[in-house]
User: Fold this.
Amino acid sequence: MRAMNPSYPSPFETPGAALRHHAARRPDAEALCFPLARARLSFAGWLDRAKSLARGLLDLGLEPGQHVVLLAENRLEWPVTRDISSLEELARIGAACGLGGAGPQIFAR
Assistant:
């Protein structure tokens, strides 16, 4: 078992790997639900949004050494943003995700 978090063993090396796994095996299964916002995403929808956001950041010119910070309340966009740094789209530039009190931060190394 690998550990994304040392306290909780996981068969996946990164959150992005876990998301890809579930999107491939259960694409239409509900993955995220925020009832008060009436927002839901399937695993495939979550992966599509994460990839789209990653591509958008690269298209905007995200480069090594730059930071992107999301300050958000508990909403659908938070987990989507959290997982983008472990997708191939951003891994190419060495992106890393840090979860601070203000939310996910994407660091291009």
Q: What stands out?
A: The chain has a mean pLDDT of 77. The longest strand covers residues 95-100.
